[in-house]
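Figure 6 in text form: structure in, sequence out.
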């Protein structure tokens, strides 16, 4: 039995990864460590919480003694670190927790990986560490790091720490840098689920600035299969960009949502832009495609249909989230925008 410590496995991508592994790879046991912040949700693991190959533990990646205990008790060989504060707008409002979780937390995990001589440490990073593109070009793994938001700066710092632990102490690591994910179980602070939720409730759709900012979208299941290839095949010390070649302007994504939900364009409202807003991201995924034989399997149109339908069919999941703290968040972020 292979034994993984997955951190942040009650969040959006982490829970999709945990469900994929438990469904498709019966020879893997997962310890899922998650602090259950506002973004962590055990409903994301419905049907899998009590799976015999899954142990959920509520805890913080900054808690070194807890990580040591877990690694010893469950004979962990690999850590996959999804845990993070992940929303750019929140990092602009309150950067401190991003420094704590994304930098100190990663460093804490790395110390354990070093001391326990783990087989692998996989850091789930982001294309945002490369900064912003103009109208041409794509991010490759050799693009210099140039993060622009407190979120991306904290992720870039974590990446540098991972590489430094590899260089200094021989920690066997991989770093993955994926573009924007979408799909089931994404917290409705991010563009796509926020717009779906608002449209379903006939609420205005707050588009930052001119709405012509470009993101390179990947269906979350395809991100998970890419991570699986990294786990199985990547040599230590390598970094991989992950993306599906789906560059879209925000307004085009919103247009697609409105059409599928049969809602009017008049719901769109242009609001004050995000400070320091990155104009365009685009991924060159050639390395993972050529070296690890990964391919995305879901087209953008198909992925968006699946995603929108999932939110329509899981309005109780959405309602549980937007009924609580979310109201305050929404008011503070969008109330006077
Ligand atoms: P998310 O916000 O949905 O989930 C983050 C999870 O981490 C939550 O379950 C939360 O409770 C947990 N967490 C936060 N702080 C913690 C701590 N101190 N200790 C333990 N658990 C903690 O995020 P996501 O969108 O699923 O992103 C997962 C990872 O993927 C992040 O590292 C993010 O930077 C990266 N990433 C995200 C995207 C994207 O489009 N969402 C793209 C590329 C990379
Ligand atoms: O590129 C990978 C990154 O993608 C991940 O590392 C981050 O964790 C993830 O949050 C995401 O960051 P973005 O800032 O690109 O995603 P977000 O969904 O917040 O915004 C996508 C685009 O939509 C961006 O141009 C801002 C815009 N936007 C977003 C929201 C929430 C709006 O116009 N209105 C909104 O209300």
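Output sequence:
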């Amino acid at each position: 039995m292979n034994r993984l410590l997955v951190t942040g496995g009650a969040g959006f991508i982490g829970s999709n990864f945990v469900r994929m592994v438990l469904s498709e790879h019966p020879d893997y046991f997962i310890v899922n460590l998650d602090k259950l912040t506002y973004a962590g949700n055990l409903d994301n693991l419905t049907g899998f919480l009590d799976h015999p190959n899954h142990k959920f533990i509520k805890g913080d990646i900054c808690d070194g003694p807890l990580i040591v205990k877990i690694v010893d008790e469950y004979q962990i060989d690999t850590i996959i670190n999804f845990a993070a504060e992940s929303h750019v707008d929140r990092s602009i409002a309150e950067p401190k927790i991003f420094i704590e979780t994304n930098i100190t937390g990663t460093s804490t995990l790395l110390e354990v990986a070093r001391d326990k001589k783990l087989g692998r440490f996989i850091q789930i990073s982001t294309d945002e560490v490369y900064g912003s593109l103009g109208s041409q070009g794509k991010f490759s793994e050799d693009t210099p790091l140039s993060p622009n938001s407190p979120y991306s700066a904290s992720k870039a710092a974590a990446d540098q720490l991972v590489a430094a632990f590899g260089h200094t102490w021989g920690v066997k690591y991989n770093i993955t840098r994926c573009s924007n994910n979408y799909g089931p179980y994404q917290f409705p602070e991010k563009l796509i689920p926020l717009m779906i939720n608002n449209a379903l409730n006939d609420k205005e759709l707050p588009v930052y600035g001119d709405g012509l900012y470009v993101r390179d979208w990947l269906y979350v299941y395809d991100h998970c299969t890419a991570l699986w290839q990294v786990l199985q095949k990547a040599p230590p010390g390598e970094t991989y960009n992950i993306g599906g070649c789906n560059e879209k302007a925000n307004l085009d994504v919103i247009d697609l949502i409105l059409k599928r939900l049969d809602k009017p364009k008049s719901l769109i409202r242009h609001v004050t832009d995000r400070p320091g807003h990155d104009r365009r991201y685009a991924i060159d995924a050639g390395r993972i495609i050529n070296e690890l034989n990964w391919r995305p399997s879901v087209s953008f149109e198909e992925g968006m249909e699946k995603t929108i339908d999932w939110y329509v069919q899981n309005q109780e999941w959405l309602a549980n989230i937007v009924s609580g703290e979310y109201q305050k968040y929404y008011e503070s972020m969008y109330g006077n925008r």
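Caption detail: The radius of gyration is 19 Å.
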